[in-house]
Amino acid sequence: MKKFFFFLVFLNFFSGISAQSKSYNIVFDITTSDTATHARVIRWSKGILESHPDAKIEIVFYGRSLDMIVQGKSTVANDVIKLATEKKVVFAACEHAMQVFNINKNQLLTGVLTVPDALYELVIRQAEGYGYIKVVN
């Protein structure tokens, strides 16, 4: 009877391990004004969400990438608004970069959030276990 009990405990332990799946969390670091790169990060995000609907995705903007999330400048505005308002992707604009480029919060696309410091935001997400991807041209 003891052997059977330990066998059940053993099976329960290993079935619990195999049933757990690691969450899919990713943070994109984007600094470029290149519109093809903007379209690419949107395409990547949609692809991740198709295969992993529970994925957590955050895109952090600073430098010249702010055009991707500014009204009247973004070539992917409809996608950004849709993903942001549906709470599928967090779009986070650096407030320091916004000051440098004279961008006000009311110029951002609907659903875009701001963070005080993009670099600190990236460090926080990595500490939380997010995979880090630097988006380049």
Description:
The protein has 137 residues and is an alpha/beta fold. The protein has one domain (22-135): Hypothetical Protein Ychn, Chain: A (3-Layer(aba) Sandwich). The protein is 44% helix and 19% strand. The protein contains five helices and five strands. It has helices at residues 2-19, 35-51, 77-85, 95-100, 118-127, and strands at 25-30, 56-61, 89-94, 113-115, 131-135. Strands 4-3-2-1-5 form a five-stranded parallel beta sheet, with helices on both faces. α2 links the parallel β1 and β2 (56-61). The chain starts with a helix and ends with a strand.
Low-confidence stretches: 4-11, 13-19
What is the ordering of alpha helices and beta strands?
A: HEHEHEHEHE
- State the name of the first-level CATH class: Alpha Beta
Strand order of the largest sheet: 4-3-2-1-5
Number of separate strands:
5
Fraction of residues in β-strands: 15-25%
Counted up, domains total 1
Q: Tell me what the CATH architecture is.
A: 3-Layer(aba) Sandwich
Which keywords apply here?
single chain; 137 residues; alpha/beta; Hypothetical Protein Ychn, Chain: A; 5-stranded parallel β-sheet; 5 helices; 44% helix
Summarize the structure.
With 137 residues, the chain is of the alpha/beta class. Helix content is 44%, strand content 19%.
Q: Secondary-structure map with pairings?
A:
Elements: H1 2-19, E1 25-30, H2 35-51, E2 56-61, H3 77-85, E3 89-94, H4 95-100, E4 113-115, H5 118-127, E5 131-135
